[in-house]
Amino acid sequence: MNPTRERTEGTFERTLTVTGPVSLDVSAHSGVIRVSRGEAGSIHIRGVARARSSFFPWGDLGGRIRRIEANPPVAQDGNAVGIGDVTDRWLLRGINLLLEITTPGDTEIRALADAGDIRIEGIDGPVECETDSGEINISCIRSEVRARSDSGGIHIQMVKGSVDARTDSGHIEALEIEGTIDAKTDSGDVRLWQTAVATVCAQTDSGRIRVRLAGSGGYSIRARTDDGRVELPVMTNQRLSRHELEGDVRGGGSVVDLETDSGDIEVVADCDANVASH
Q1: Which of these three, 67, 102, 119, is where a domain ends?
Q2: Do 1 and 109 share a domain, yes or no?
Q3: In whole angstroms, what is the distance from residue 178 CA to residue 154 CA?
């Protein structure tokens, strides 16, 4: 084995036994968090601690990687499991922590990353994710999802519950959502697809909003853009002003509130897949 690699990378694996619903708390100062559905009754964790390339001296990286390898940041209290949290914050300086976790479907997850990507799929949930700088990808969740990113895109698909997504700089996708959708970005496009009638709220300061509504059920739509065009389905009780268009679809119902300072707004309210596929 390459001796340089030995000094700059270490791995660890753990398998934990659980019974019943799991509460999983995962964090990574810098790196990647991946969580997927596994077998009932056990959580399997594979971690890689890898030195980051940097002009800054990070001290004894090799020694700290060996410490992580020998004593992985994994804690269990019954069905409550914490992964990646360390009391000595210096331990992870200059180190990327890559975590791959499989957990029973009946798991609620909280995942935090300072600078890193988060991917979660196939979990009952609820799911809460937050990263300062990185992408968030969440799919196939059976309850609500909450996602936050200071700088990075958010991609969410196939959720049975509500979705709440916020990013300061990045685009938001929330597709095939059965519950309410609340999406907000300061700079980026928003693309939504709802499969059951519920409230939809989307806001971007600079970007395009594209929404596909459920194929049946009523909506009351309000769309506003300061600088852009608005394309909406056929509506009744339509009210038009200089920058704002309101009206009802299928007799009215759940509120759809869309707003962008600079960008177009496009809404479809039938089974056409154009919004979701482009």
Answers
A1: 119
A2: yes
A3: 18
The pLDDT of 196-216, averaged and rounded, is 95
User: What is residue 42's predicted lDDT score, i.e. its pLDDT?
Assistant: 97
Confirm if 81 and 111 have CB atoms less than 8 A apart: no
Q: What is the pLDDT of residue 241?
A: 74
Paired tokens of 29: 């100062």
Question: What is the β-pairing status of strands 9-17 and 42-51?
Answer: antiparallel
Residue 44: pLDDT band with limits 50, 70, 90: very high
* Class of residue 97 by CB neighbours under 10 A (exposed 0-12, middle 13-18, buried 19+): buried
- Distance, CA of 113 to CA of 226 (rounded, Å): 35
Q: What would the mean pLDDT of 23-33 be, rounded to a whole number?
A: 91
Residue type, 113: A
Q: How many CB atoms lie within 10 A of CB 131?
A: 25
Instruction: Quick: pLDDT tens for 90-145.
Output: 667 777 889 999 999 999 999 999 888 999 999 999 999 999 989 999 999 999 99
Q: Identity (one letter) of the amino acid at 104? A: P
Q: How many domains does the chain have?
A: 2
Whether residue 148 sits in one domain with residue 273: yes
CA dist 167 → 171, 201, 255 (Å): 8, 14, 22
* pTM > 0.85: yes or no: yes
Q: Quickly tell me which residue has 């949290």 as its tokens.
A: 85
Which run of H or of E encompasses 118?
A: strand 107-121
Residue 5 host element (H or E): helix 3-8
| Residue among 33, 26, 32, 36 at smallest CA distance from 122 | 36
139 domain residue, yes or no: no
Nearest to 153 by CA among 204, 196, 102: 204
